[in-house]
From TrEMBL:
GO terms for biological process: early endosome to Golgi transport; intra-Golgi vesicle-mediated transport. Residues 1-30 are annotated as: Disordered. Residues 10-19 have a biased composition (Basic and acidic residues). This is Trafficking protein particle complex subunit 10. GO terms for cellular component: cytosol; TRAPPII protein complex. It comes from Buceros rhinoceros silvestris.
Amino acid sequence: MYLPSATESAVEKENTTHKDVHRKKKEKQKQGNCMATVDQKVTIDCPWSIYSTIIALTFCIPFNAKHSLLSAGRRKYLQVCVQNLSELCFQLSDSSLKNSADCMDLQLVPLNPESQQIIYSKQSIFFVWELKWTKELPLSLQCLFSVSFCPATSEEQSLTLKPFTYEFHVENFFTLYHVKTEIFPPLGAEYCKTGSLCSLEVSITRLVDLSEVDRDEALTESD
Protein backbone atom coordinates (compact mmCIF):
# COMPACT_ATOMS: atom_id res chain seq x y z
CA MET A 1 0.00 0.00 0.00
CA TYR A 2 1.32 3.43 -0.97
CA LEU A 3 1.46 6.38 1.40
CA PRO A 4 2.02 9.77 -0.29
CA SER A 5 4.96 11.84 0.90
CA ALA A 6 6.29 15.32 0.18
CA THR A 7 8.39 16.01 -2.93
CA GLU A 8 12.03 17.00 -2.64
CA SER A 9 13.71 19.21 -5.24
CA ALA A 10 17.39 19.27 -6.13
CA VAL A 11 17.81 22.73 -4.56
CA GLU A 12 16.29 21.61 -1.30
CA LYS A 13 18.48 18.53 -1.34
CA GLU A 14 21.55 20.75 -0.98
CA ASN A 15 20.18 22.28 2.18
CA THR A 16 21.46 20.24 5.14
CA THR A 17 18.89 21.65 7.54
CA HIS A 18 16.06 20.73 5.21
CA LYS A 19 17.44 17.23 4.85
CA ASP A 20 17.36 16.75 8.63
CA VAL A 21 13.79 18.02 8.82
CA HIS A 22 12.75 15.76 5.91
CA ARG A 23 14.42 12.75 7.54
CA LYS A 24 12.69 13.38 10.87
CA LYS A 25 9.38 13.81 9.06
CA LYS A 26 9.86 10.45 7.30
CA GLU A 27 10.80 8.74 10.58
CA LYS A 28 7.74 10.21 12.29
CA GLN A 29 5.57 9.01 9.40
CA LYS A 30 6.95 5.46 9.68
CA GLN A 31 6.35 5.43 13.44
CA GLY A 32 2.78 6.60 12.86
CA ASN A 33 1.76 3.72 10.59
CA CYS A 34 4.12 1.12 12.16
CA MET A 35 4.24 -1.01 8.99
CA ALA A 36 7.26 -2.45 7.27
CA THR A 37 8.13 0.04 4.54
CA VAL A 38 10.03 0.17 1.27
CA ASP A 39 11.26 3.58 0.12
CA GLN A 40 11.66 4.38 -3.57
CA LYS A 41 12.56 7.63 -5.36
CA VAL A 42 11.50 8.80 -8.83
CA THR A 43 13.47 11.56 -10.55
CA ILE A 44 11.57 13.77 -13.02
CA ASP A 45 13.53 15.89 -15.52
CA CYS A 46 11.68 18.67 -17.34
CA PRO A 47 13.10 20.41 -20.46
CA TRP A 48 12.04 23.86 -19.16
CA SER A 49 13.77 23.50 -15.80
CA ILE A 50 17.44 23.15 -14.88
CA TYR A 51 16.54 21.23 -11.73
CA SER A 52 15.38 17.68 -11.26
CA THR A 53 12.36 16.93 -9.13
CA ILE A 54 12.73 13.98 -6.80
CA ILE A 55 9.53 12.33 -5.62
CA ALA A 56 9.85 10.05 -2.62
CA LEU A 57 7.49 7.07 -2.55
CA THR A 58 6.91 5.00 0.58
CA PHE A 59 5.24 1.62 0.11
CA CYS A 60 3.92 -0.04 3.26
CA ILE A 61 3.91 -3.84 3.39
CA PRO A 62 0.89 -4.92 5.45
CA PHE A 63 1.62 -8.66 5.37
CA ASN A 64 4.44 -11.16 5.33
CA ALA A 65 3.88 -14.73 4.07
CA LYS A 66 5.77 -17.99 4.27
CA HIS A 67 4.91 -21.56 3.30
CA SER A 68 5.66 -25.08 4.46
CA LEU A 69 5.00 -28.60 3.20
CA LEU A 70 3.42 -30.90 5.80
CA SER A 71 3.17 -34.68 5.67
CA ALA A 72 1.14 -37.24 7.61
CA GLY A 73 1.64 -40.74 6.25
CA ARG A 74 0.65 -40.63 2.57
CA ARG A 75 -1.30 -37.41 3.03
CA LYS A 76 0.43 -34.15 2.21
CA TYR A 77 -0.54 -30.57 2.89
CA LEU A 78 0.58 -27.09 1.83
CA GLN A 79 0.41 -24.48 4.57
CA VAL A 80 0.67 -20.72 4.05
CA CYS A 81 1.21 -18.46 7.06
CA VAL A 82 0.13 -14.81 6.72
CA GLN A 83 1.44 -12.38 9.35
CA ASN A 84 -0.01 -8.91 9.88
CA LEU A 85 2.96 -6.51 10.15
CA SER A 86 0.91 -3.37 10.79
CA GLU A 87 -0.90 -1.80 13.71
CA LEU A 88 -4.17 -2.07 11.75
CA CYS A 89 -6.70 -4.89 11.77
CA PHE A 90 -7.72 -6.33 8.41
CA GLN A 91 -10.57 -8.49 7.19
CA LEU A 92 -9.43 -11.41 5.02
CA SER A 93 -11.63 -13.21 2.49
CA ASP A 94 -11.55 -15.27 -0.71
CA SER A 95 -8.27 -17.09 -0.06
CA SER A 96 -7.06 -19.29 -2.91
CA LEU A 97 -4.05 -21.35 -3.92
CA LYS A 98 -3.43 -22.15 -7.58
CA ASN A 99 -0.89 -24.35 -9.30
CA SER A 100 0.45 -22.49 -12.32
CA ALA A 101 1.42 -25.77 -14.02
CA ASP A 102 -2.28 -26.78 -14.31
CA CYS A 103 -1.58 -30.43 -13.51
CA MET A 104 -4.80 -32.38 -14.14
CA ASP A 105 -3.80 -35.22 -11.80
CA LEU A 106 -3.34 -32.91 -8.81
CA GLN A 107 -6.00 -31.25 -6.68
CA LEU A 108 -5.52 -28.61 -4.00
CA VAL A 109 -8.40 -29.12 -1.56
CA PRO A 110 -8.88 -26.12 0.78
CA LEU A 111 -9.36 -26.85 4.48
CA ASN A 112 -10.05 -23.23 5.40
CA PRO A 113 -13.29 -21.63 6.63
CA GLU A 114 -15.22 -19.93 3.85
CA SER A 115 -16.31 -17.08 6.12
CA GLN A 116 -14.34 -13.86 6.44
CA GLN A 117 -11.59 -13.74 9.04
CA ILE A 118 -10.22 -10.85 11.08
CA ILE A 119 -6.42 -10.69 11.37
CA TYR A 120 -5.33 -8.45 14.23
CA SER A 121 -2.13 -6.48 14.56
CA LYS A 122 1.00 -8.69 14.70
CA GLN A 123 -1.21 -11.80 14.47
CA SER A 124 -0.57 -14.76 12.14
CA ILE A 125 -3.27 -16.77 10.35
CA PHE A 126 -2.65 -20.13 8.69
CA PHE A 127 -4.25 -21.44 5.49
CA VAL A 128 -4.00 -25.14 4.62
CA TRP A 129 -4.65 -27.14 1.44
CA GLU A 130 -4.49 -30.91 1.11
CA LEU A 131 -2.73 -32.31 -1.96
CA LYS A 132 -4.65 -35.09 -3.70
CA TRP A 133 -3.30 -36.84 -6.76
CA THR A 134 -4.45 -39.79 -8.90
CA LYS A 135 -1.24 -41.03 -10.55
CA GLU A 136 1.87 -39.50 -9.03
CA LEU A 137 2.99 -36.17 -7.67
CA PRO A 138 4.78 -33.83 -10.09
CA LEU A 139 8.46 -33.15 -9.53
CA SER A 140 7.76 -29.56 -8.52
CA LEU A 141 4.92 -27.11 -7.98
CA GLN A 142 4.78 -23.39 -8.77
CA CYS A 143 2.06 -22.00 -6.53
CA LEU A 144 0.33 -18.64 -6.29
CA PHE A 145 -1.47 -17.78 -3.04
CA SER A 146 -3.99 -14.94 -3.04
CA VAL A 147 -6.24 -13.41 -0.39
CA SER A 148 -8.45 -10.31 -0.48
CA PHE A 149 -8.20 -7.87 2.39
CA CYS A 150 -9.61 -4.57 3.59
CA PRO A 151 -9.39 -2.58 6.85
CA ALA A 152 -11.60 -4.12 9.52
CA THR A 153 -12.99 -0.76 10.67
CA SER A 154 -16.38 -0.06 9.13
CA GLU A 155 -15.53 3.47 7.94
CA GLU A 156 -12.57 2.19 5.88
CA GLN A 157 -14.11 -0.97 4.40
CA SER A 158 -15.07 0.93 1.25
CA LEU A 159 -11.39 1.14 0.22
CA THR A 160 -10.63 -0.87 -2.91
CA LEU A 161 -7.37 -2.77 -2.49
CA LYS A 162 -5.83 -5.36 -4.74
CA PRO A 163 -5.57 -8.89 -3.24
CA PHE A 164 -2.37 -9.77 -1.42
CA THR A 165 -0.43 -12.38 -3.42
CA TYR A 166 2.46 -14.66 -2.55
CA GLU A 167 4.24 -16.86 -5.10
CA PHE A 168 6.39 -19.83 -4.07
CA HIS A 169 8.01 -22.96 -5.43
CA VAL A 170 7.81 -26.45 -3.87
CA GLU A 171 9.79 -29.54 -4.80
CA ASN A 172 11.07 -32.78 -3.20
CA PHE A 173 7.75 -34.17 -2.02
CA PHE A 174 9.32 -37.31 -0.55
CA THR A 175 8.61 -38.06 3.09
CA LEU A 176 12.03 -38.67 4.62
CA TYR A 177 11.06 -39.72 8.15
CA HIS A 178 8.13 -41.28 9.96
CA VAL A 179 7.77 -39.99 13.53
CA LYS A 180 5.67 -41.78 16.16
CA THR A 181 5.29 -40.80 19.82
CA GLU A 182 3.60 -42.54 22.72
CA ILE A 183 3.29 -41.78 26.43
CA PHE A 184 3.21 -44.66 28.94
CA PRO A 185 2.02 -44.57 32.57
CA PRO A 186 4.44 -45.50 35.39
CA LEU A 187 5.11 -49.18 36.09
CA GLY A 188 2.18 -50.81 37.81
CA ALA A 189 -0.23 -47.98 36.92
CA GLU A 190 -2.98 -48.23 34.36
CA TYR A 191 -3.34 -44.54 33.48
CA CYS A 192 -1.22 -41.41 33.36
CA LYS A 193 -2.06 -39.07 36.24
CA THR A 194 -1.14 -35.49 37.07
CA GLY A 195 2.03 -35.35 39.15
CA SER A 196 3.22 -38.86 38.23
CA LEU A 197 6.38 -39.43 36.21
CA CYS A 198 5.52 -40.97 32.84
CA SER A 199 7.76 -42.09 30.01
CA LEU A 200 7.68 -40.69 26.48
CA GLU A 201 8.83 -42.90 23.60
CA VAL A 202 9.76 -41.30 20.27
CA SER A 203 10.33 -43.54 17.24
CA ILE A 204 11.94 -42.00 14.13
CA THR A 205 12.14 -44.21 11.05
CA ARG A 206 13.93 -43.12 7.88
CA LEU A 207 11.78 -44.00 4.87
CA VAL A 208 14.12 -42.98 2.02
CA ASP A 209 17.82 -42.30 1.73
CA LEU A 210 18.88 -38.70 2.13
CA SER A 211 20.12 -36.88 -0.94
CA GLU A 212 23.43 -35.06 -0.76
CA VAL A 213 21.64 -31.73 -0.29
CA ASP A 214 19.56 -33.15 2.55
CA ARG A 215 22.68 -34.60 4.13
CA ASP A 216 24.30 -31.17 4.15
CA GLU A 217 21.20 -29.64 5.71
CA ALA A 218 21.05 -32.41 8.32
CA LEU A 219 24.64 -31.63 9.30
CA THR A 220 24.10 -27.89 9.56
CA GLU A 221 20.69 -28.14 11.25
CA SER A 222 21.51 -30.87 13.72
CA ASP A 223 19.64 -29.07 16.47
